[in-house]
Amino acid sequence: MTTTLNEIGIMLRILLSIICFGVLLSMVTLTSCKKPLFFSNGNLAFSTDSILFDTVFTTIGSTTKNFKFYNNDSKTVVIEQIELMGGADSPFRINVDGLSGLSHTDIEVEGNDSLYVFVEVTLDVNASVNPMVIEDVIRFRTNGVDQFVVLTVWGQDMYYHNRDTNEGVWPNDKPHLVYNYAGIDSAKTLNIQPNTQIYMHKDALILVYKGTLNINGTIGNEVNIQGDRLEAEYDDISGQFYGVYFQEARESKINYCNIKNGTAGIHVIGDNPSNIGYTVTITNSKITNCARFGAIIYSGARVEAENCIFAKNEFHALAVYAADFNFNHCHLVGYSSSGEQTPAVGISNVGFDLATQDYYYGSINEGTITNSIIYGDLEQELVLDTLYPGTGLNFNFAFDYNLIRSESIQTGPEFGLNNIWNENPLFYSIPDGDFMFYSTSPMHEAGSVTIPNNVTESEFIGIRGTIRTGYDQGAYEIL
Questions:
Q1: How confident is residue 269, by pLDDT bands cut at 50, 70 and 90?
Q2: Deepest of 132, 144, 262, 367, by most Cβ within 10 A of its Cβ?
Q3: Residue 331: count of CB within 10 angstroms of its CB
Q4: What residues are paired with 95 via a beta bridge?
Q5: Confidence band for 240, pLDDT divided at 50, 70 and 90
Q6: Left, alpha or beta for 426 (phi > 0: left; psi -120 to 50: alpha)?
Q7: Mean pLDDT, rounded, for 68-90
Q8: Is 51 in the same domain as 190?
Q9: 103-109 and 77-84: which strand pairing?
Q10: Overall average pLDDT of the 66-86 stretch
């Protein structure tokens, strides 16, 4: 049978079609086999199955937390989807390996590799005095299998203060948050109730300008002032806010108040001409872990303190500049958390004139520390610097019934005969900031038996409410 060229052409075209079909078929087969041959069929492992944010204030963003997910297979794994299940209504925000968004698809993780997920949260005001708990989940879908990481936040609504003026009484049914400053203006009075929780934003202060501030905490219901970052890593970070600042204030009182992690816990400059008593009276309070001073008293201010603890501040526990002070039964100790420290008590007669904006040398008409401890890591924890006294200046110092650390025993007329020098106070735990002392401490029953004026014997108590029967030095009275 004779085959024509036309028939040969037809046969070639048929053969070519068959060959092409075979090639295509093999390509499809290879393509369909690509995943099982080169990609993992496994799932992910996680560094944690939940992320918890401790109390976050409404409208204030949290710190960023993170976790890792792992591909423990030797082959690359393809994550079909990573999704924040709450979507656009969620208070949480996620970032996967540098990419923000509510959902991420087709993410490849090479064999034995891992990626980070970063999480933040911001809560809306909920108009409630009660804490709220909000949860969401991040879903990871890999090879048709869903895995989840749970996100939880404790939220709290609060009262906000931002460059406002305040008077009357602050409610204590929910916390107060201060931005920039909360002011008490001239001739105004603000009373802060027991168990009020005050949180201060970066560099914020409570500013008392020619007004009156009364912080009225009670034992067991103290007023607490601290920074607004409540994550555990901020527990011992100083300098988170400024402090409580009094300028030419009218007579003010602070009782059972804890101030921690500020810059200058209590700053008093100037006195109000209308005052008969002290500018500020501080009782039963703790001022700790400030970046500069526990208390700084400046330029004619007059401050009284009883049963107070000033400790672990990076500069002076008490700094005085041309001002008057009377401290009784106080802990004035160093031991800063940063390791940097100046003497626990530093006293100078250099003041600062607010009117002329210039420095001057002034008197210290009352400079009394009794029944207290002045101690720390340094060899010299009490420094008196009264250079250039000039004429007509007064320096009336009285230090007695104290335990003092000093390079040498002071014998000047300002030091009484009942001071104890350079003996170990035997604190419970300096690293933990526990400055209670053991019964074998030289501070035990070493104070004066004199009860202060206008105080009955039953009212003569230590910071824990224990009646002083043994007359211990410092803020505590032990049995």
A1: very high
A2: 262
A3: 30
A4: 100, 118
A5: very high
A6: left
A7: 92
A8: no
A9: antiparallel
A10: 93
